[in-house]
Write a structure and sequence with these properties.
The complex is a heterodimer of chains A (540) and B (314). In chain A, 32% of the residues lie in helices and 18% in strands. The radius of gyration of chain A is 26 Å and the shape is globular. The termini of chain B are close together. Helix content of chain B is 77%, strand content 0%. The mean pLDDT of chain B is 87. The longest helix of chain B has 38 residues. Chain B is an all-alpha fold and 314 residues long. At the A-B interface, helix 1, helix 7 and helix 13 of A face helix 3, helix 4, helix 6, helix 8 and helix 9 of B.
Chain lengths: 540, 314
């Protein structure tokens, strides 16, 4: 084949044409809108109703587009958010709330007290703290367009905390017509009053979620603190890019294609920290608390001695080293209510914490197991293999249980398989189980009421179904306690009882650092269990 | 020929029925409860049960299958249990990136592989031949995600020539579309280059040994026309078969490539749906995939007739 002048010319023209077509688009791609941020969140936003589900992603979405009556500040104290004025009657049984002026839904209509009451009614059906509160609510009368009341049967010190909490589901306010949807059916209209508007036309499940600034939003005058204070929106557009591969997300952050990577794997952190412009920071200081749930319904763990044996066998340090790796990001913890939180008491934690040599603990565990009458039957341990922390933790836990003489049988599947099987109350050889592992946010773990997993109501409790009237009595006592000091005192007794009874076995606490473009973004707020985008400014 | 095509198209119906029964049974008998996943980790069992009822998952399996089957026959693939969006709409949103990736991959693979295969066969036993076959072995052996990460490291992270991830529709311009597809297409195409190059070489070697090639050469036909018009045309049937299989196999490769390069295609849609047990999406996409496979095979069979006029279908 010969190369003629004509072929060279046409090739050159084709290349020029291609470059010509591409050039304006390259320029457009590089010309990022001045006030835009792109985040890679922990997962996909597959459900748009933050009341229908307790998934974190739905809560993140809710915090973008909805607002709350109250919000916890950086010191975990409830502060008014949509509410302008609160009056509490002398007998502390009637709370009167007046909405602050200027609140509007994204469709332009005004937020009314009728909307708020309908939202409260829907939320309480789905939320543990809401249910606990509404067991004591006599009525929720609407006084006028801007005022409504919560009338209690008895004083309840956690009312504002429940409305302000950041553990899922948060008490988001929706339009009355939307809030009228059955709580067990997903809403189909998405009208919020929060700082950002959800752009439904650009929503691609599994790929991207887009929010734009709500120009009508009137922030409070106080500085932003926690989920409370002034939610000043300094970005025009926030895009969530759902990137399933952590390595890809890290590379995209390093090249500047995205600005924020929520859950970079711990082993990638040194690379990210060294990358120019990238900053690694922990925003959720309470992190996560791991727990091994033992099935209280069936042998051997329906026996207290066997549960105590399992508790002695579990070594938090070994688990955390395998699951998290870097000691800078984990700690052992003897509290059922998250260490470093206001309720992070460690009373009675000797059995849980490694204060005796492991060989000694294991010897005692073997004795306890013998006392329990364990007959060597296989112990079914549910094992989610597709989530790193779960996979690693369960492998270590299984080995630790084997070391005290339990005949461990791993039932491996993905997390989807575990969430189905863990609900099965049948004996392990009929589709049930003996042990499974999960974790909860440190913030929700800190409250004996908010976290449903703390309940000890038998078959009505969370998976594992512990039953202990003393624990239930103390949880109620905690909720009714008049102040923080009194609550902490109850928490001390409660922690001791939960460890003694082996309600579940805590496996330690760890934080998840976030990685972001520190050379572009500033003003990120530290809020447990929420990634807020108000107050965030793009300065470069 | 026409009656053959009609018969093959009608044959799609039982295939789809078998696929439908198989996929439905497999999904519903495998462990996993979408209601529990929707409800989230903090939910009570009562809430999970209520969501299960609202999704109709508490109905007998046969009843669920009948209603899904009937709706599918009417072209209604259902609605995602999670996002409440119609499966057909989700597939429409995702099909563009997948077709783009598959098309560019096959284009890259076919053009490179056939050229290499012909060159290797023409220079059989030479250093070039060995190099091509070495490349083919490498292409087969290295997983697509490893090739992907290596390409990203050099061309995106080090040289900053191409983006790490993402997809731009063709409507945004030819170059933005292409620059997002170059790395994934090369990564995904490596295995197909290897496969097609090997088959092309083997098939060409066989044809090049035929008498009519020697005759053409003796008549003074130039090398290139002889290789392309005489040899390649007669060696094309196995090559086209392999390309057809390649296109069908591409679906599994696309899933990994779409994840590594964050391309919002159908592959990722179905993987996400499997993780969440979003039954309508999995069932809908599987039925579509099955139909595509059957049609690809049909197209390949028809192509045989055009390439080799001796092939006739009764």
């Amino acid at each position: 084949m010969t190369t003629s002048r004509r072929t060279v010319l046409s090739a050159g023209l084709a290349a020029a044409a291609l470059a010509g077509i591409g050039a304006p688009h390259v320029a457009r791609a590089q010309q990022r809108p001045a006030r835009q941020a792109r985040m890679v969140p922990q997962g996909d936003l597959s459900v748009l109703d933050p009341i229908w589900t307790t998934q974190n992603m739905a809560a993140y979405h809710g915090a973008m587009m909805y607002d709350t009556l109250f919000g916890i500040d950086a010191k975990f104290q409830p502060q008014p958010q949509m509410v302008g004025r609160t009056d509490i009657s002398a007998d502390r049984k009637t709370y009167t709330f007046e909405l602050r002026p200027g609140l509007k839904w994204h469709d332009g209509t005004a937020v009314t007290s009728r909307d708020c009451v309908a939202s409260l009614r829907r939320w309480q059906v789905k939320d543990g703290a809401g249910q606990h509160l509404f067991e004591r609510v006599a009525d929720t009368p609407v006084v006028d367009e801007k005022t409504f009341r919560i009338v209690l049967k008895e004083p309840y010190g956690l009312l504002l905390d429940a409305l302000a909490k950041t553990s899922t589901p948060l008490c988001f306010m929706m339009k009355a017509e939307v809030a009228a949807t059955d709580p067990n059916t997903q809403i189909t209209k998405h009208i919020g009053s929060g700082p950002f508007k959800f752009i439904e036309s650009e929503y691609r499940p599994g790929s991207r979620v887009v929010y734009e600034r709500n120009a009508d939003y009137v922030p409070r005058s106080e500085p932003a603190s926690g989920i409370a204070g002034g939610k000043r929106v300094l970005l025009d557009r926030v895009i969530w890019d759902i990137i399933p591969d952590a390595q890809t997300a890290a590379s995209a952050l390093m090249t500047g294609e995205v600005d924020f990577f929520e859950v970079p794997p711990i082993d990638i952190l040194p690379t990210l920290s060294a990358a120019p412009g990238v900053k690694v920071e922990v925003f959720n200081k309470l992190g996560n608390v791991g727990q091994v749930r033992l099935n209280h319904l069936h042998p051997p763990f329906n026996n207290l001695a066997a549960r105590r044996a399992a508790q002695l066998a579990i070594n938090q340090e070994d688990i955390q080293r395998a699951a998290v790796g870097n000691p800078a990001y984990y700690r052992t913890c003897g509290s059922h209510f998250a260490c470093d939180s206001a309720m992070g008491v460690e009373d009675g934690s000797d059995a849980l914490m490694l204060k005796a040599p492991m060989a000694q603990r294991q010897a005692r565990a073997r004795e306890l197991l013998k006392e329990s009458g364990y007959d060597g039957k296989p112990i079914v341990v549910l094992h989610a293999t597709n989530i790193h922390v779960m996979n690693q933790t369960v492998l270590v836990v299984a080995q630790q249980l084997r070391q005290i003489g339990l005949n461990v049988q791993l039932a491996s599947s993905d997390w989807g398989g575990v969430v189905t099987r863990r609900a099965n109350q049948n004996p392990p050889d009929q589709g049930g189980w003996n042990v499974f592992y999960t974790w909860s946010g440190g913030n929700s773990t800190a409250s004996p009421i908010s976290l449903f997993a703390h309940a000890a109501t038998g078959r009505k409790a969370w998976f594992g179904w512990p039953e202990n009237p003393s624990i239930e009595q103390m949880r109620t006592e905690w909720a009714l306690a008049p102040n923080l000091e009194a609550r902490r005192s109850v928490a001390q007794r409660l922690n001791r009882t939960m460890i003694d009874y082996v309600h579940d076995v805590k496996t330690g606490q760890w934080v998840q650092p976030h990685a972001y473009r520190g050379d572009r973004l500033r003003g990120l707020l530290a809020i447990p269990e929420i990634i807020p985008w108000w107050n965030v400014e793009r300065y470069a | 020929m026409l009656s053959y095509i009609i018969r093959r198209l009608l044959g799609v119906i039982p295939v789809m029925l078998v696929v439908g029964i198989f996929v439905f049974s497999l999904l519903h008998l495998a462990p996993g409860d979408p209601a529990a996943i929707i409800a989230g980790d903090n939910a009570t069992e009562e809430n999970v049960a209520r969501i299960r009822a609202s999704l109709g998952l508490d109905r007998p399996l046969l009843e669920q299958f009948a209603s899904w089957g009937w709706a599918t026959l009417r072209g209604d693939l259902g609605v995602s249990m999670f996002s409440n969006i119609a499966v057909t709409k989700l597939v429409q949103q995702r099909i563009g990136p997948t077709i783009s990736l598959a098309a560019t991959t096959m284009l890259v693979a076919i053009s490179i592989a056939i050229t290499l295969g012909i060159l290797a066969a023409w220079n059989a036993g030479s250093l070039l031949d060995r190099a091509v076959m070495g490349l083919a072995v490498t292409g087969f052996s290295v997983p697509v995600f490893v090739v992907g990460y290596i390409l990203v490291y050099f061309f995106a992270l080090q040289l900053h020539w191409l983006p790490v991830q993402g997809y731009m529709p063709l409507s945004e311009g030819l170059w933005p579309w292409l620059r997002h597809l170059i790395l994934p297409s090369v990564a995904l195409g490596m295995a197909y280059v290897a496969l097609i190059a090997r088959i092309t070489r083997a098939s060409m070697l066989e044809v090049l040994a035929e008498d009519y090639i020697r005759t053409a050469s003796a008549k003074g036909v130039a090398t290139l026309p002889m290789l392309l018009r005489h040899a390649l045309k007669n060696a094309a049937v196995p090559i086209i078969t392999v390309i057809g299989i390649g296109v069908a196999l591409l679906m599994s490769g696309v899933v990994i490539t779409e994840s590594v390069f964050n391309i919002p295609g159908v592959g990722r849609l179905v993987v996400d749906a499997i993780t969440r047990r979003d039954y309508p999406i999995i069932q809908g996409v599987m039925v579509i995939f099955a139909a595509v496979y059957v049609l690809i095979n049909l197209v390949i069979d028809i192509l045989y007739c055009f390439i080799d006029p001796r092939i006739r279908y009764a």
